[in-house]
Structures are given as C-alpha cells and as structure tokens.
Amino acid sequence: MIQTYIPGRSVVHRMPATAKLALFALLALAVTAYPHDAASIGMALAGVCALYLVSGIPFATLIVEVWRLRWLILVLGVGLWVFVSPLTAWISTARVVALVLLATLLTLTTRMESLLRVLHRLLTPLGRFGIDPRTVSMTIALALTMVPTVARFSTEVRDAASARGIRLRIRWIVPLLVRTLRHADDVGDALAARGLV
C-alpha cells in the first residue's frame, strides 16, 4: 500500500487524528457549503495553501500537488468559463482544488493506521445495523489516499507520452486506467497479506 505520509513535528502532525479529521471535515464543509464569491473562495484557497506551510510540508510539495491537478483545473475551468460564466468557473474550480488539497494534506500529515483507528471508532455504531465498520473505514481511508495517487499516475502518464513525442487525447485514459487497476491489485494483495480482507 502506498503511504503518502510525510513525517514532521508541526502542530498539524502532532494534532490527534480525531481532532484533525474533525477539523478537516469542517473546513471541507465550509468550502463546499458556504456561498462563496470571487474574493472569499480565493481566501479559502489561500488558507488551504497556508495550512501546507503551517504543517511544515515543503513548498515544492504544494506546487507538485497543484501541478498534478492542472488538467482538472483546465478542463473544469475552461468548460465552466465557456458554458456558464467566468465567475462560476473560478469559484467552482477553486472549490474543487481546495477540497482535493485538503484531502491530500490529511494523508500527508496523518499515518494511515491512525486514520483507520479514528474512522473505525466513528463507524462502530453502524455495526448494529449490519454494517462492518472496519470495511467502511478501510474504504474511506483508501479513497482519501487514492486522490493524490491517481493524480500522480495521471501526471506520469502524460509526462511519459510527452517524452516520447506522443500527443495524448482521449487515449490517455487507457494507460491511466491500467496503472490505476494495477495499483488496486497491489493494494488488494497487500491487504490480503495483512489479513485485512
């Protein structure tokens, strides 16, 4: 299983996983639910970027994470700009980028084991309804870690094609799917080896 955690001694690293997950969930809710205008969504995005610096994550890592989202930004931004309005394009694109960066920061500053323990505790009451909290918590944790992983795969596929002088169109989806499915198989094998599935 790919571990995206970056060790550190910042206040964000040292924050208990329960409090951190609750804080990040509230921040994500605020970014999503608040009726943003052009200025407020810019401030929200800047605040998320500032959290990276407070966390002691290298600035280069933040740049890399934003760069990995360039195609999402381009497709979503241009599509909304053309079909809706420039303001909607800015607000919606910045909102999505802020949410992805928040999810990535959570995985960069929290060990997977800690995240799984917190999610398992929170989901334990669902056991009385026949839902396995361990399975659900594992699914949520894997979904969070897959956000930066798939973004990295996308970047690597496009960079490899560019190095070979290949112009990618819709066909770039195929190698991306192959890498993603291969990674899913590796994760499944790792979980099975640990007796988690």
Walkthrough of the structure:
With 197 residues, the protein is mostly helical. The chain has one domain. The chain is built from nine helices and no strands. The longest helix is centred in the C-terminal third of the chain and has 31 residues. It is globular, with a radius of gyration of 18 Å. The two termini are 13 Å apart. The model has no long low-confidence stretch (mean pLDDT 82).
Q: Brief description of this entry?
A:
With 197 residues, the protein is mainly alpha-helical. The protein has one domain. The protein has 9 helices and no strands.
Coarse shape: globular
Assign the structural class, choosing from mainly alpha, mainly beta, alpha/beta, alpha+beta, or little secondary structure: mainly alpha
Q: Percent of residues in helical segments?
A: over 70%
One letter per element, helices H and strands E, the order comes to HHHHHHHHH
Number of strands: 0
Poorly predicted parts: none
Mean pLDDT across residues: 82
- What is the multimeric organization of the chains shown? single chain
- Number of helices, where a helix is a run of at least 4 consecutive DSSP H or I residues: 9
Gyration radius, to the nearest Å?
18 Å
Report the sheet with the most strands, covering strand number, pairing sense and barrel closure. none
Distance between the amino and carboxyl termini: 13 Å
Strand content: under 5%
Number of domains: 1
Main location: membrane
Pfam families: CbiQ
Membrane topology: Multi-pass membrane protein
Protein name: Biotin transport system permease protein
Task: Record the SSE blueprint.
Blueprint: H1 11-14, H2 17-33, H3 38-54, H4 59-68, H5 70-83, H6 86-109, H7 112-123, H8 133-163, H9 173-193
Helix pairs in contact: 2-6, 3-6, 5-6, 6-8, 7-8, 8-9
GO cellular component, one term: plasma membrane
Transmembrane segments: 43-64, 71-91
Protein name: Biotin transport system permease protein
